[in-house]
Amino acid sequence: MKIAIYGLGLMGASLALALKKNGVPSEVTGIVRSASSKKEGMSLGIADNILLEEEFLDKDIWNNFELIIFSLPVNLTCDKIRLVPSSYQGFLTDMGSTKMEIIKTVEEKYPSTHHYYSSHPMAGSEHSGLIHAKADLYEKRLCILTPPKFVSDVSTEYITKLWHSINMHTIVIDASSHDNILSYLSHTPHILSSLLVNWAAENSVIQKHTEASSVPLTGGGFRDMSRIAGSNPDMWDAIIQTNKEYILNSLLDYRGKLDQLVTKLQENSDPSFWKDYFIYSKKSRDYILKVDN
Amino acid sequence: MKIAIYGLGLMGASLALALKKNGVPSEVTGIVRSASSKKEGMSLGIADNILLEEEFLDKDIWNNFELIIFSLPVNLTCDKIRLVPSSYQGFLTDMGSTKMEIIKTVEEKYPSTHHYYSSHPMAGSEHSGLIHAKADLYEKRLCILTPPKFVSDVSTEYITKLWHSINMHTIVIDASSHDNILSYLSHTPHILSSLLVNWAAENSVIQKHTEASSVPLTGGGFRDMSRIAGSNPDMWDAIIQTNKEYILNSLLDYRGKLDQLVTKLQENSDPSFWKDYFIYSKKSRDYILKVDN
Fold first, then answer.
1. Model pTM score
2. In chain A, whose CA is at the least distance from the CA of B207?
């Protein structure tokens, strides 16, 4: 099958590598914005062919592909959805991190049966760019699938099989629940991680001793908690812009619970509070991460 | 040299293994509280000898050891410091995560020259217990050294060499600065990580879909940010109890900066704010972690 991956950043390029690695019979064409990405992608053997976006659009060759996958920040994904010609016959999906804007755009475009089934493969890295692509990025991870109105059964089946073919698990979640869940499990944690490094870096005592030390002052906990801070600012900006309400809601919820902890520290009246809180946290983590003990 | 490691949890047991791995000529005795730890430690070959605490104390054999290292939660470390007989001639240190209480206890005990030099090897794990001990836990990490009043030159030199012998970097930081720095780089992040998992696990939409999914709904970012949540509740309880003021101070600072982000989301008036914020976060992380780009 002939597949176009529109955007060859970390996510798109890793998908191209995963299709090959898993022996999925496919001819993959990457579509990129810059000549340097084209050159780099070809020299790394990321895809069978790589086209500049202008080549692809000028030649109007959408129907050369049985499947087109948008692997772009959410705002750009919406722009490309609007560009799809009405004559296009193939399947469409995306890898967007928020869903309400994408589903709204798809539903505005297609008032009757169509072949666009939205996807969110839940994997990533603190690195961005095709140079960091990994064939096993998606291995055994979860792909959330979100149906727009009027999506065809044949496309839901086709796109679901695509993710299974690279060894992903799938689950169907509507756009609003997706964006709500992701605000808790990804988007707001990303903001909190970014805040963490800024808060620490702005402290003058930390600055003084960081500069005096030949190695970082941090242990592994801080390193882990800050790993995602600052990764791909364009992608994350688009995520915030397209999920502001749920992010604000979850951030206010976090702040409310933080205030309760501040009060507990200030009151200092319950000697067993913190030990119990950490025991409870372990249970919460095991629950969320489905760890059996 | 004959060394006693008082407490064979993850930290103490890893130190015992690191001394062997690095060929430091030493005979290491572990001191443990329970018969089951003694049995487990012996069968895993953690130390040359393992004594029950009661055996060690009943026989009053402190002077059998050239060096005694307390590897216990901070509150218990302070208890043991008070127990050291005045006849003990050897060197003393600890591996405590907060310093003001320990230094205060040492300074109350010793009104003149003594051989207690406090240490904080900055390494750890989400696991606890000697079964998770690793010989390379401390490899190339930082050990913060904190001098009490009246500490002898010979002991500062001896203890510093000890950490160098297992390939650690060292830096000297006074107790108050240590506890301030660690509140930012370890203690408060630990609370924030614990809060993160509880906040997510208490959300009913997350609960519904977590229960419906065969695999976790989280990506790698959440997993990393929550890794330390719930690790060793006793150790972390003792850390909070002995560093409440700096932790409260840093938590209030974090909350203040969080409030600014909430306001930015609510106002929604600066379209470039988030992209700039994420770019800034990357710089902050690189600064704290001493990453060259």
1. 0.93
2. A288
